[in-house]
Every structure is written in structure tokens, then in C-alpha cells.
Amino acid sequence: MCYKNCYGHRKLGLMTAASGRTPVGERLPTLEDVARVAGVSRSTVSRVINGIRNVDPQLHEVVWNAVGETGYVPNRLARSLVTRRTGTVALVVSDSESHDDDPFMGRFFADPYFGRVVGGLMSVLRQSGVQLALQIVGTEEGRKRLVGDLRHGQADGVIVLSLPAHDPLPGMLTDAGVPAVMIGRPADPVPINYVDLANDTGASLAADHLVTRGCQLIGMISGPVDVPASTDRISGFRRSMARHGYGWVPLVSGNFTRESGEDAMRELLAENPQIDGVFVANDLMALGALLALRDAGRRIPDDVAVVGFDDSSAAVAANPPLTTVRHPLEDMAAESARLLLSRIEDASMRVSSVIYEPTLVIRQSA
Amino acid sequence: MCYKNCYGHRKLGLMTAASGRTPVGERLPTLEDVARVAGVSRSTVSRVINGIRNVDPQLHEVVWNAVGETGYVPNRLARSLVTRRTGTVALVVSDSESHDDDPFMGRFFADPYFGRVVGGLMSVLRQSGVQLALQIVGTEEGRKRLVGDLRHGQADGVIVLSLPAHDPLPGMLTDAGVPAVMIGRPADPVPINYVDLANDTGASLAADHLVTRGCQLIGMISGPVDVPASTDRISGFRRSMARHGYGWVPLVSGNFTRESGEDAMRELLAENPQIDGVFVANDLMALGALLALRDAGRRIPDDVAVVGFDDSSAAVAANPPLTTVRHPLEDMAAESARLLLSRIEDASMRVSSVIYEPTLVIRQSA
DNA sequence: ACGTACTTGGAGAGCGCTCTCCAAATCTTG
DNA sequence: CAAGATTTGGAGAGCGCTCTCCAAGTACGT
Questions:
Q1: What does each C-alpha distance from B151 to A77, B26, B179, B304 come to in angstroms?
Q2: Is B4 on the interface with A (CB under 8 A)?
Q3: What is the pLDDT of residues B10-38, one digit of tens each?
Q4: Hey, are the CB atoms on B347 and A21 less than 8 Å from each other?
């Protein structure tokens, strides 16, 4: 830690005395001020600002001039208090897995998954001038406060991401009547909007490819066994393999990190030395698997073929580039945002879901 | 696009009639309601809720019971309106480079840089119960609105990230007196708090290592030539190389993406076939460089040694693992958050900066 | 000319909360 | 036990905005 003694350690010529939020005595102009300058009433100014007709074009102009003159900016907080609209959508991520020094969250945010989702979300939200507020909930207490705030209109709606197995949050949100969209289906049946990938189909694609390639002993490295996205990939893979006559598939599960993929691959290799094909449930773990395989002296794809999942940027950068199942996460996130926005607009919309179809991207690892 | 016809395509048994934000007629309990139930005045309830002394312990209990009974949750919006505190910090990123279909932002969010920063920020903010609101500004108009909202207390402070060369935003923020901290120093001298890495020192480390290794012709792949983080790395590298007797360093610049690194490496290779060492200004570009070098049949590090920058997760996953300059981005982001929080607490704090020292992480690429 | 219908601007009541006053109640102390 | 010092609770004035009402003004038909 160096900060203690470096504060102010690089001096800047222009430094001025520290000033508070608002220089003393300098109050920001309010509607009232604009009204006074324009010589009309507060209501009229409000009408003009919000573009409501029924205002004499002349006054219209007078008001806008007054706005320019005073440098008036509407106070969103005050406005939200009465309109019950904040122009904010909350992105909720859960961290029940996290422990003291915050290891889980660090991992989560650094994962390309998070960035892709945020990117997709923002591509839609920014066009509507909606901002995204990041919320992390872990405890029961946290969930309660979140839902309470949400009911009060702290945010107009919420995108829910990456929940642990049987999180009560989706249910709480629907009960509270808060517009919400989940990315990835809820683990328990709950009447909530969601956008998901046909994970099972994706896994099938991988299975088909590996089998067609002529692999004889095919294993799988899965994610945690209690989250839907992961279980769907497992069941989809198993089902497809079974159809191809592979009644049994060696499986080791990791936690979606590169390290866990490496460990899992070693384990798989130790137990099944003959293995010549492996489906890894995400690219990050596949990267780890590649490392472990190389360590073990296996050539890819000649000795062992590897298929990943996600088609994240890691897939292209891998050596060899990963054959992987494309997960159109940005599109899905964008779609969730659109869905949420329309749900906010029209509260009577019925619960809906959107399922995206994955595709196989063939590169060199299989 | 499949969503048009898949809405509601998976039916859920429990679907209920869509309900608005608040079921009709069901108003959320307010302070007033709690006061009525407790048989005291609104002020007293407010005092109890906010833990102000001067309240009879008996009443204290009565009030809390009433809170429990009514299920009261304070309305943050209303509270913020009067306290001028929102419990929100804005994370501002700029996208002036972005064009129509949003390519820049997509890149930016998917970059591990963004995730690491968010992770570091949240690790501190969540402990104070502060939420992070993502804001993208591009246009002059956008900047004005942002600063306006900020002055109104839309957020208590702002973390500024990744600005293009001569963005006027830092100046606008200081002028407005909004508590702000930049991650990475401002391009123009502005009295604003910031947390930065000694980029020049980092580049020196890379230069020393490459020289010590015995490389004869050493090139550099830099980032855009107009952002401070990038120029500092260039000048630091050049300076150090000069001291070692290398008066001239072939340089090609990219834009911090893997693709651009690949292109830059090809260019460098074409112009300097003898090249046997290269410093790449970030790991993502280094990944691309590795690809290009492998394509050209060069062995790493035997034929060409490569040093990256950032020590992002990509560095470990690369083949061979990258020797790179460690950029403690999470720590820096966490520190910015702390700095901002204390600045918010104490408006009279003087402008300060914190510079972190990078270290060299030696792996196998050099 | 008058009455009716429509347009337009203003007054004012909140949204839910905090916080400053002030009065009442309680406690000191000579 | 009176007079002052101290606690404690309530009334009420906002924070800055929206939006419903209502009155005044304008246009039209008979």
C-alpha cells in the first residue's frame, strides 16, 4: 500500500482551494427561478420543458430563453419522486458464494461474461437514456432491501444475472410486482420474464461434432452442477451422446474458471488416459484444459479434440483457436433490455421468454 | 432475430395476470403510516429510523415494532431529495470513438480492463452500501447533462474512466465542484483527483528485461498515441532503451485490441525482419502479436521475446504464458473508490493523486 | 348581442422525507 | 419549592418537481 504517503504527491499547478459540491450561496436554478425570469408560472415552465402542447408558441420561446439564461437543469431526483420513474435500471448480480476477501466477485467481474452482458445491455439502454445501476446482493437482508427499494421506484426495473441455484430473488421480485427480466432461466419455476440460450442444443452440437470427428472416448468438463445453464449443458450433452451410442460419459465439474478447467482436465486425463475428445462447458475452462493437455504432451486436436462453449474472445486467442459453441450473449443482453423496457412501458404485458439458438463455430481445436 | 415469435414460447404453469408496479390501491407504507400505528409523530419515527438519540428507549421500541408491523421501507428517493445524498457513485466512461453500430463500446466492455475496474470499485463500494451507476457519455450534450445531473446530486461523486485524449470532462467536473476521481491521469493538467500507474516505470522494466535478455533489435507495439497511459508507456520505454544505448526503437501503434496487436506485429516484422524482442503495451495486443509471430514461424521466446503489459488473465492463458508488467488495476480501482468516498465525506479535502508502482512478472514469453 | 365550447395559464396540493424550530415535560440546584 | 437548565416530542416548512383543478381569455354559433 503506497497511498497513505502519496496523497498529493504530484502537484498540479492549477490546484485551487477545495470546494464543496455547490459553492457556498450558489444555489442551482429551479423551475421557480426560470419562471420568474420568463415572467410566467412554474406550471407553464414545467409544461414547456416536458413538451406538453397547449402552450402559446411565443411563451414557449420565452421560456426556453429563460432556461438558457439561468442555465437550468431539471432535478431528476425531484422529478422521479413525483413521476415514479427514475430512468434507471438495476443490474443485480448475486454473490452468495463470496467469502471474506471477495474472491468470487473478483472472478465474476473479470470474466468476459460480465463485460459482454453489460455491453449488450448498454447498447440498448443508452439509446433510451436509461442508466444502469449495479447492485450486488448476497444476504437475505440485502434481498429485502433491494426489493423494498425497487418497490419504491428506486429503479424502474431490474435485470437479474447469475443467480445461485435456488435463489429466492426471482420470486420476491414477481411478488413485489417489479418489472424484471432474467438472463438465463430461473432454477425454480417462477413467473418471471427471461432470456436464455438453448443450452441443451448447444451441448448437442458439441456432441455431434465430436462424434462425427470419430472420437472414441469423449469426456465432459461441466460447470457447477446446480445452476440451470450448467445442468442444461450436461443433460443436453449426455442425451445427444446417448443417441450416438455413448451410454456413459466421464464428467468432471469445475466452476467456470480457467484454473478449475485445468484441474478438471488433469483429473479426466488421469482417470481416462484414452480420452480423445472433450466438451468443456465454457471457454475459460477450455483454456485451462488446453494447458493441462499440452502439459500431458497431447496434441490438439490430433490426440484430443476440444470443444468449448461461449465463443468468448478467449476462444480466438487460444492456441489452437477453440472450436466452440457460440453464445450470443450481447444479443441476449440487448434483448433483455428491450424486453424490460417494454415491460416497464406496458405493465400489463404478459410474462414472456426468449430462447436463442446457439451455433457451432469450428476453428482448430476440434 | 428470433425473439419476435418466441415471446412466451415456453409457458410457465404459474403465470399470473400481469400486475403493475404496485397492485392497485396498495400504497406503500410511509413514515406517516408508521407514526400513526406507533401513535407518535412523523418526526419521532424519522429520528428513530435514523438513529438519532434524544428518543425515549420505550418509544424507540414502539416505533420499531410499528415499522415491522407495517413493513415500512424508507423511500430513498424522497430522502435523497432533502439530504442531497444518494448513496450512488457514477462510473463514467466515454465513447467518443464509437460509431453507429457501437463497435467501440462492445470492445471496451468485453476488455478485461473494464471488468477488473468494476470489480475493484465494487469491492469497496458495496461495503459502504453505495451503488455504482454506469454512465456513458459521448457528445458535448451528454457531458453537459451529466454534469448538470451530478450537480443536482444525482450521484454523490463520480469515477472517470478511459477518456479520449483531450476530453473536457475533467475540467467540467472540477468547475462544477463535483467530487470526482479519475483512474489514469488526465491528459491536460486539471486539478482533479486521480489514481494512476507509473506507466513509464513499467515500460522501463520491460525494456531492462528485454535488454538484459540480450535482444538486439527491440521493437514496440504501443496503444493509441494520444492517451496518457499510452504515451507514458512509449516515453518510458524509449527513455530506458536510450539509456541502454538503443537510440532508435521501431514502433507501431495499435488500439489495445488483440486484432490490432496482430496487425501491428505483422507490420513490425515486415519492416524489421531481424527483430528479436518486442514490448507490447497491453496483454490483449500481445496475444495478437503472439499469433502473428507464430504465423511467421518464429519461436517464442527463442526467436523473438515478447513482454506484455497489464498481467490480465489473458497473460496466464497465453501460449507461452506472457512475461508482462503487472498493473494492479483492481487495487487501483479500490483505492479510487476509497479516495472518492473520503472526498465525498470531507469536501474540503485537497486534490490528491496516488501513483502505483508496477512490477515485472516473468513467465515464459521473455 | 348572448351563451356555449374550447384554449391557455396560474394556484396549489402533494410525492415522502428531514430538520429546524418551539412548547411541554423533566430534572437540577440554591 | 421556585427558577433555571435540560431533555424530549410535535408542528410545520421546505427539497424541486408534476399535475389536477379552476379561472380567465378566445372563438364560434345562433
A1: 12, 35, 10, 53
A2: no
A3: 322 222 333 333 343 467 888 888 888 88
A4: yes
